[in-house]
């Protein structure tokens, strides 16, 4: 997690929140009003939300599963989102031959299933996620045109669609993260 997340568990106004509403970094004004700026701003805010939902938890808490038979955990979610970032930005948009981080044809859910209560697994997951987010940010910085085409299984896809999909993916999983975190320590969505 980033240094900024260290203060996200210091809410003084509402004890069940991460940070006082007036200090929430996601509440800052948008950086622009054009389509690209809006999409990148939303994606950035959802990435911050994932970090917030995981802040100040130990390995056992991060690996805590939801309800059986689900294997969903916050740690699994970090691993999954690293895999998703890698797939869309490295493979589809940059057309790299980047192998999966966790999942294979034989173990499709290894990102979730391998999320075990081990500090080394936690550290590796956060590093992988940060590396993939950094790559995506660098790719986006050098690719200004939202109509730039990627390729997924022979089907062309514009960057614009990938960004919307990434926002949707983070939004869905951040909703899951709200429930997981509330089960762990009572902190609610913010």
Give a quick summary of the entry:
This protein is mainly alpha-helical and 190 residues long. The protein is built from six helices and two strands, in the order αααααββα. The two termini are 18 Å apart.
Commentary on this structure:
The chain is mainly α and 190 residues long. It has a single domain (36-185), classed as Four Helix Bundle (Hemerythrin (Met), subunit A) (Up-down Bundle). The chain is built from 6 helices and 2 strands, in the order αααααββα. The protein has a two-stranded antiparallel sheet. α1 (35-54) packs parallel to α6 and α3 packs antiparallel against α6 (159-185). The longest helix has 27 residues, at 159-185. It is globular, with a radius of gyration of 17 Å. The model has no long low-confidence stretch (mean pLDDT 90).
DSSP helical segment count = 6
N-to-C SSE string, H for helix and E for strand: HHHHHEEH
How would you characterize the largest beta sheet? 2 strands, antiparallel
What multimeric state do the chains show?
A: single chain
Parts with pLDDT < 50 across at least 5 consecutive residues: none
Taken together, the total number of domains comes to: 1
Q: What name is given to the CATH topology?
A: Four Helix Bundle (Hemerythrin (Met), subunit A)
Across the major sheet, the strand order is 1-2
Proportion in β-strands: under 5%
Note the overall shape. globular
CATH class: Mainly Alpha
Give the radius of gyration: 17 Å
Class based on secondary structure composition and strand pairing: mainly alpha
Relevant CATH superfamily? dinb family like domain
Helix content: 40-55%
Quote the average pLDDT: 90
InterPro entries: DinB/YfiT-like, MST-like
Pfam family, one: MST
Organism: Jatrophihabitans telluris
Protein name: DinB family protein
């Amino acid at each position: 997690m980033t240094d900024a997340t260290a203060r996200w568990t210091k809410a003084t106004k509402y004890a069940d929140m991460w940070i006082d509403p007036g200090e929430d970094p996601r509440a800052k004004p948008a950086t622009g009003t054009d389509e690209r700026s809006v999409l990148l701003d939303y994606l950035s805010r959802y990435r911050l939300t994932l970090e917030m939902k995981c802040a100040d938890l130990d390995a056992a808490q991060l690996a805590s599963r939801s309800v059986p038979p689900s294997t969903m955990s916050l740690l699994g979610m970090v691993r999954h989102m690293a895999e998703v970032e890698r797939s869309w930005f490295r493979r589809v948009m940059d057309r790299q031959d980047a192998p999966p981080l966790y999942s294979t044809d034989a173990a499709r859910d290894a990102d979730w299933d391998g999320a075990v209560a081990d500090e080394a697994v936690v550290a590796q997951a956060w590093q992988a996620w940060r590396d993939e987010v950094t790559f995506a940010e660098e790719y986006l910085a050098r690719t200004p045109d939202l109509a730039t085409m990627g390729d997924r299984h022979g089907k062309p896809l514009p960057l614009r669609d990938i960004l919307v999909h990434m926002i949707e993916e983070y939004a869905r999983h951040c909703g899951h993260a709200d429930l997981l975190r509330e089960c762990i320590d009572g902190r609610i969505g913010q």
